[in-house]
User: Fold these one by one.
Assistant:
Number 1:
Amino acid sequence: MNSLTSTFMTADNLPNSNFLPIDFNFLNNPQYADLSIEAIFLHALYTQRMTCSIHNSLQDGSWLDEEKIPFIYYSNAEVAEVLRISERKVTTLRNQLAELGLIKVVRHGLKNYRIYVANPKAPAEGTVMKFTFKNYRAPQTVDKSRDAKSASTSSQNLPISTSKQLVKTTNKTSETGVAPKKLQQPVDKEAALLAGLQARYAHLIPETVFMRFLPFCDNRYLKAKKFVDLIFKAKYVANQQFIKAGLPPEAEALTFENNPYFKNGLADAIAKACEQIYRYGNVSQPEAFFFSFLKGFFVEKTRQFLVDSYEVNDHLAATLERVENFQKRKVLVKSA
């Protein structure tokens, strides 16, 4: 038997798990008729990675967000290498999937995005099926025998703010590299949680920022966490305005790492917001006000960075004008 015929499928060598799962609903549901084969293949890659995340979540509770929903990390660069296409093409395909509700992409940390993967919808009753046969083996929700290493912290490009990497970096002293001995006295859990929260985001949020809002948290972790979440939510929404206006998602102006105006001005912005909320006491919805105030801060500092760092050509001027129009429309809606 030659090398070609030796690889033909027979009853003895049917593929077990060495393939990507393509859902037949993509081929049977007319809703996905215009979806490219590349986009379907990308969804298959995401689905494969999702099975790994779900497997690990069942083992140790990892790869779940704050609402216990599993997610994946899969950068455009990794996908581009697998699919042998450009990263820009991956962005286009990802947008196609997002528009159809097949994935949801949420920025997390500096340069990472959490990706939530949805199952394609089944066709409506009465639809003529293009594929009516089934696999000879019943599908499994989670293949626990499958190698789940691709969802490990070392290979999924986790941001350094995650709790797992925080444990790795804080369980050793900086001088000796030896794990500290267990404390004999009772530990203040709230203080420990607050310290962990501050350490987790120290690379993004300066200590002076925490000092602005911690006095209003009554030394409670959940209150402090809410402040932090609102900061990142405000930044995310502000970023979306610039992305919709034409700025690339990877633009340095949108990141804490490359835009110094964020870190340098954030403490003062939070101080002003807290003063308005707590000192004057004339804010009826503190959380909404804090979010809105910080969103305006991030929009302004992004604009300032772009103007100061780049030549304002026609494209950049148009981008800034579109963002300004977004802001004006929202003001008009609120006042209507």
Number 2:
Amino acid sequence: MTVTLDGLETRPAQVWGSVRLVPLVRDEPVPYLRLHRKVYEEPVSVVDVGDAVYVSFVPHAFVATWSDGDQTQAASYGARLLERDTGAAPPRMPVRFTRRMARKAGKDRLRFLPLHLAVEGYLALHFGGPEIAWEEWSRRAVAHGLSPRCEETYLGRQVRDLEDALRIFEIHPGQCGVLVYVADALASAFVVPHPEDYRALHPTLVEDLFGELIYIYGLLGAPAGDLSAPIDDTEIRSLDDLRTAADLRQEEWAAFHDEVMAGSLFDEDGSRQVVQHLHGFELSRFLPSFALRGENHIGETITDADGRVAYLKSFRLSDAQVKRGYLLRRLAEHDWRLGATAAALGTDKAALALRLERAGFGYLLRQDVLDHYRAQRVT
């Protein structure tokens, strides 16, 4: 099933410095599903994901609650935001153990860690390492695979201008989402089922994860481009003419944004994995095809039976992260044989080995093999 943003309408962008916020509005909320935030006191989480352990900074979780479709008389009184404890911090850093990234917290609710579900999917990409003990791979690679896998991210409050933009700009009536751009690079998308959910969860964007590319763009302070389309005043004869021209410009902006600026958010050649079922809804994560020299986004969604997106969070991978995903995918496609993979990439084994080392995977190769390939390149 291809994920789309059908049912969400694009509104005029709001620009502050290098940050551009594009509001997404629904005519009607997605019925029978709500989101609220659960704040954690402990800054570090260790999540048991089965055959591996995932360690990360987790400031909060999202809790999805849903109701049966036949309970038409039920009324929702808005999203609930649990306040952070203001007590004194303990003298040591506590660590919280969580059983799964997403697990049932009752018959009508699901707790999951926002964005960490998507990041886990990226980190687990061919995590087991070589399936066949080819002679080039080290004992560590065969025994432990790619453990540990580490990736660096930045909090939203570290991205220049983002916190100010989120504080200053208004929230539109019916707004259920936003797309965040930094220097006109799509940084993330955030969608929820209900406008009240968005109002409650809007501040959490400063605690989201952002990649190196987005952080650097914010650090450079490159201003967002002027994408405004002026109205030809020579064609305006009345207020109706002005209103018609303004509506036309808004439609043109929405079409340009959806087709061009956000056109690479969902990768048709990528993969999607369903993680949990929520009584008519599906919680899934998606990975891109890791095409080089292009946008690659990972993310997670909750979709209804018609494929409509009720919840979405995305994360844009940096160029280095894309290259790592690309190399792992190509190795897996060729059963981790260096020769076959190198031939498919149009290079030789020595060049591929050094490419793996630059990507941070040099420890997977035997030291003598890596030294041999290094010597080949020098000579």
